[in-house]
């Protein structure tokens, strides 16, 4: 039986090998790919629009051709603001070109983005995106609410930033309406002076305290995390010492603000998109597809951020200047 099966298998393979008109590629289909995140903190809002491509030959070579993934001038794009069931505003997007995209598989010399200018997006409104292919008449659309502002209880705006050596310091905030995932970062700002040439450069180090998900998108959920001063100063030592472009002969001093507590929030759809596209931790590599784009794929959602700027407490500054972890970094009062 094994011999018969093997002969049959070879026969089937030979049939496909001899058939010269066998097509691997399916019939081409227009699939628009859309990426856009609105943030009421921004004054300029960008939408990235591309298309899936299919063809004979080397796919990597086709990816380097800008025509493979671009619609050229054949799109009409607009965003509508809706509040209380009525359209209140509309923006027609124009294009802009960026030249600082990092190298990769796809063409990166320049990238065309669609944009509109608005410094007064209303967090109580919904925003609807429409994209029309002028050649085919096809409409691609999506809608998103905005992440609302929220309050931070600890650290308060009237206190200094404390980095106790061994005692945990609590960070506390209330979740946002329409917000789902929260990332908290402590940014340490400082000046660095090169004693060889006299140049001063402002630098910063970001210490990521992690991501946290609220149990609801209705807002006002109490959320907390903690940090330790020893861990903070160890991190500063490691990051500053490992920077390859930092000269040895330097003096450093605190910049203003000394530290910033940066809270970044992702809306529910954006959080789901990140979860689905996160690296797989199992042997199953195939992932479900998630999109909130009608007649296309991708994500149109919102995010928001709050930055609390503080001076470090005198105790914390002393720990920076003479503490065991950072005393050799040459910080001055």
Describe, in short, the structure shown.
The protein is α+β, with helices and mostly antiparallel strands and 333 residues long. It has helices at residues 2-18, 59-63, 66-69, 229-242, 268-276, 314-322; strands at 32-38, 44-51, 75-83, 86-92, 94-98, 111-117, 126-133, 139-145, 152-154, 168-174, 179-194, 200-213, 222-228, 250-267, 296-310, 331-332. It folds into 2 domains: 24-145, Immunoglobulins (Immunoglobulin-like, Sandwich), CATH 2.60.40; 152-267 and 303-332, Immunoglobulin-like, CATH 2.60.40.
Could you characterize the architecture of this molecule?
- The chain is elongated and about 70 Å long.
- It has six helices and 16 strands.
- The N and C termini lie far apart (about 85 Å).
- The protein is an alpha+beta fold and about 325 residues long.
- The chain has two domains: about 25-145, Sandwich (Immunoglobulin-like), CATH 2.60.40.10; about 150-265 and about 305-330, Sandwich (Immunoglobulin-like).
- The longest helix has 17 residues, at about 1-20.
- Mean pLDDT is about 85; it is low at about 1-25 and about 55-65.
């Amino acid at each position: 039986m094994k011999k018969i099966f093997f002969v049959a298998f070879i026969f089937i393979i030979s049939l496909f090998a001899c058939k010269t008109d066998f097509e691997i590629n399916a019939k081409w289909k227009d699939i628009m790919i859309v990426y856009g995140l609105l943030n009421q903190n921004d004054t300029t809002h960008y939408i990235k629009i591309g298309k899936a491509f299919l063809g004979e030959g080397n796919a990597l070579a086709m990816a380097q051709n800008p025509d493979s993934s671009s619609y050229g001038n054949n799109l009409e794009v607009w965003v509508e603001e809706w509040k209380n069931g009525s359209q209140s505003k509309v923006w027609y997007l124009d294009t802009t070109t960026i030249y600082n995209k990092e190298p990769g598989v796809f063409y990166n010399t320049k990238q065309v983005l669609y944009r509109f200018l608005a410094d007064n997006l209303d967090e109580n409104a919904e925003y609807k995106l429409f994209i029309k292919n002028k050649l085919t008449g096809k409409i691609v659309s999506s809608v998103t609410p905005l992440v609302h502002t929220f309050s931070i209880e600890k650290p308060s705006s009237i206190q200094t930033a404390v980095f106790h050596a061994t005692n945990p310091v609590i960070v506390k905030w209330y979740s946002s309406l329409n917000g789902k995932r929260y990332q908290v970062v402590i940014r340490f700002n400082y000046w660095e002076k090169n004693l060889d040439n006299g140049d001063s450069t402002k630098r910063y180090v970001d210490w990521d305290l992690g991501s946290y998900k609220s149990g609801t998108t209705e807002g006002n959920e109490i959320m907390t995390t903690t940090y330790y001063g020893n861990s903070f100063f160890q991190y500063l030592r490691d990051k500053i010492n490992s920077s390859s472009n930092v000269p040895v002969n330097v003096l450093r001093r605190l910049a203003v603000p000394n530290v910033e507590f940066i809270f970044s929030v992702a809306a529910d759809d954006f959080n789901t998109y990140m979860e689905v596209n996160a690296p797989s931790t199992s042997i199953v590599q195939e992932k479900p597809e998630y999109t909130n784009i009608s007649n296309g794929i991708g994500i149109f959602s919102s995010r928001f951020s709050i930055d609390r700027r503080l001076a470090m407490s005198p105790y914390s500054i002393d720990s920076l200047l003479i503490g065991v972890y950072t005393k050799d970094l040459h910080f001055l009062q």
